[in-house]
Amino acid sequence: MSDQFLAQAARLATVFSCRALLSLRSSDFPDHSGRPRIYAANHVSHADFVALWTALPRSLRARTRPVAGLDYWEATGFRRWLIHQVFRGVLVERGAKREPGSDGGEVIRHLAAPLKAGEDLIFFPEGTRNLTGNDLMRLRSGIYLLLQEVPDAEVVPCWISHMDRILPKGGFVPVPLNCDLRYGAPLRPEPGEARTEFLARLHAAILACRRTEA
Amino acid sequence: MSLDPFLTPTAIVCYALFALLGVAEIAALKLKPKMDPASWENLRARIRSWWVMVFVFGTIFWLGRGVITLFFAFCSFAALREFATVTHTRRADHSALALAFWLILPLQYLAVYMDWALMALLMIPLYAFILLPVITVLKGEVSGFLNRVSETQWGLMICVYFVSHIPAVLSLQIPDYRFSAITLITWLILVVQASDVLQYVWGKALGKRLLAPKVSPSKTVEGLVGGVLSATLIGVILTPITPFTPLMAGLTAFAVCVMGVFGGLILSAIKRDRGVKDWGHLIRGHGGFLDRLDSLVFSAPIYLHLLLGSF
């Protein structure tokens, strides 16, 4: 009971401090269609999913879970508590082979379970934080395989701005900057669309979300 | 000084502004058929925000020096955030920016509140100027170094150092002045903001020649002259709440209005350069904090120094 209370307090504190520090603003957020949803965003900071989750409409926050790297989030007790109790993350082993038939299938099924149970996921299709300085790295095939596993799911592309300056790799103290989240129209693989074609379309859709950014 | 707190000059100015806003609401309703819906909505949102701003100012100014200082510290924080967002700073500037936000900004306002005059005067222009490049250079990122370091320093100067001159007015002891120094801030903000609004009104009514078309597409020479002169007149009319003679009030009002115009132009030029329309979105209809503070930023230091020189 008190664990639940503590986690809820941490969620409220996160929403409050994140809103106050970053003056989060969402534009063109697509209304929820009732389909299982995967938010696919660019990834430069550990705080990316926190910003996206906080900026979601309140009614959607409870049903939205971040997909996070097991190696990082299982490393300390505090991180374990944060990712499991507070954010109800879905942890995956990174670097697992994502080819169907091999042990990658297990990862995909693990990710598909919440979607099939009516929850949404926050997913970073680059697979890891982008430290290259380029806009968006090549997308991994995980998201395509996940959509094969849950055919009625849709992908909502999203661009999160400035997070690499707000809380960069190795940074501990956040620098408050105005953080914008810009969304694009939901997409789904066309019938017969090949993996590379779909990933290229999603890649372009995420980049297109930046639009008017300075 | 034993005036009823609801009858201070600041309180009376607020009542007058509320009455004026009531008139503005009615005028906006009358104008509705003549305006296109988008600019009418914007006008309406601006007026709504003015209600909130006057209410917030009235309350804060009633609560005294500590709260006023804290309020401007918060304005600086929001302004610096808007400024830093549009700069070229990158990961290598993270430590310098974190220090600017979490150490230098609070220290500046602490110094202002505690009357540590030398520190309030020198910390940002001298010690922050030395410290921040030192921290940044240690990161070893040379690309855009001059730009990034200068932008951070400019952000601190404009958003923190200049803005902190407004609450610094509260440390003044003016002989034979019967009101609290808070009234001096009220007068400054009223005159400068009136100049902004009146430039807009005069510009809409008579504006023909553009003042600086590349920098600000809406500022006109007619608006500028009409706005500055009528705001100066307001400053003179309010002489009884100031320690000035009418002539001094007029000259001071004129000086802060002119500085206000330049402040607006300079911050517009930065926005155009960086390709943004508004600094932020926190004040509905107006944009960000810097969109509302732009004219105060450059007039506040001049105002403080004019006061220091005159008394």
From TrEMBL, chain A:
<dbReference type="Pfam" id="PF01553">
    <property type="entry name" value="Acyltransferase"/>
</dbReference>
<dbReference type="GO" id="GO:0003841">
    <property type="term" value="F:1-acylglycerol-3-phosphate O-acyltransferase activity"/>
</dbReference>
<dbReference type="GO" id="GO:0006654">
    <property type="term" value="P:phosphatidic acid biosynthetic process"/>
</dbReference>
<keyword id="KW-0808">Transferase</keyword>
<keyword id="KW-0012">Acyltransferase</keyword>
<dbReference type="InterPro" id="IPR002123">
    <property type="entry name" value="Plipid/glycerol_acylTrfase"/>
</dbReference>
<protein>
    <submittedName>
        <fullName>1-acyl-sn-glycerol-3-phosphate acyltransferase</fullName>
    </submittedName>
</protein>
<feature type="domain" description="Phospholipid/glycerol acyltransferase">
    <location>
        <begin position="37"/>
        <end position="163"/>
    </location>
</feature>
<comment type="pathway">
    <text>Lipid metabolism.</text>
</comment>
Automatic annotation (TrEMBL), chain B:
<feature type="transmembrane region" description="Helical">
    <location>
        <begin position="180"/>
        <end position="202"/>
    </location>
</feature>
<keyword id="KW-0548">Nucleotidyltransferase</keyword>
<feature type="transmembrane region" description="Helical">
    <location>
        <begin position="223"/>
        <end position="241"/>
    </location>
</feature>
<feature type="transmembrane region" description="Helical">
    <location>
        <begin position="92"/>
        <end position="110"/>
    </location>
</feature>
<feature type="transmembrane region" description="Helical">
    <location>
        <begin position="247"/>
        <end position="270"/>
    </location>
</feature>
<dbReference type="GO" id="GO:0009273">
    <property type="term" value="P:peptidoglycan-based cell wall biogenesis"/>
</dbReference>
<dbReference type="GO" id="GO:0005886">
    <property type="term" value="C:plasma membrane"/>
</dbReference>
<keyword id="KW-1133">Transmembrane helix</keyword>
<keyword id="KW-0472">Membrane</keyword>
<keyword id="KW-0812">Transmembrane</keyword>
<dbReference type="Pfam" id="PF01148">
    <property type="entry name" value="CTP_transf_1"/>
</dbReference>
<keyword id="KW-0808">Transferase</keyword>
<feature type="transmembrane region" description="Helical">
    <location>
        <begin position="116"/>
        <end position="138"/>
    </location>
</feature>
<dbReference type="GO" id="GO:0016779">
    <property type="term" value="F:nucleotidyltransferase activity"/>
</dbReference>
<feature type="transmembrane region" description="Helical">
    <location>
        <begin position="50"/>
        <end position="80"/>
    </location>
</feature>
<feature type="transmembrane region" description="Helical">
    <location>
        <begin position="154"/>
        <end position="174"/>
    </location>
</feature>
<protein>
    <submittedName>
        <fullName>Phosphatidate cytidylyltransferase</fullName>
    </submittedName>
</protein>
